[in-house]
């Protein structure tokens, strides 16, 4: 029940924010923002697939070569630390 109420509150606040944003930005700017957000969602699908395939490859690697898997995990950790702002 608590999860349902939290989800309903989140949806209501999201709706209110979208209405407020559309009034503040105007039709042209708001539609440009929504187009950009749609592109981000579309780009997220193949990136999620890449993440899933990397995780599956890592999971297959761990039982066979634990040392190599540990090195690979550390390397990915360094890459993600560099990529984060």
Question: Your description of this structure?
Answer:
- The chain contains three helices and no strands.
- The mean pLDDT is 83.
- It has 85 residues and is mostly helical.
- The chain has one domain (10-83).
* Rg of Cα set: 20 Å
Silhouette: elongated
β content, as a range?
Answer: under 5%
What oligomeric state best describes the polypeptide chains here? Answer: single chain
**Could you estimate the helical fraction of the residues in percent?**
over 70%
Number of strands: 0
Average pLDDT score: 83
* Continuous helix count: 3
Taking pLDDT < 50 over at least 5 consecutive residues as the criterion, the unreliable ranges are none
Order of secondary-structure elements: HHH
| Structural class estimated from helices and strands | mainly alpha
Counted up, domains total 1
**What is the terminal separation in angstroms?**
37 Å
Largest sheet: none
Keywords, separated by commas or semicolons:
94% helix; single chain; 85 residues; elongated; mainly alpha; 3 helices
Outline the fold blueprint.
Elements: H1 2-25, H2 27-64, H3 66-83
Helix pairs in contact: 1-2, 2-3
């Amino acid at each position: 029940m608590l999860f349902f109420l939290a989800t309903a509150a989140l949806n209501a606040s999201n709706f209110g924010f979208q209405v407020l944003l559309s009034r503040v930005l105007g039709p042209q700017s708001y539609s440009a923002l929504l187009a950009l957000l749609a592109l981000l969602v579309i780009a997220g699908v193949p990136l999620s697939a890449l993440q899933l395939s990397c995780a599956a490859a890592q999971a297959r690697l761990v039982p066979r070569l634990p040392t190599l898997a540990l090195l690979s995990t550390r390397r990915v950790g360094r890459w993600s630390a560099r990529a984060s702002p």
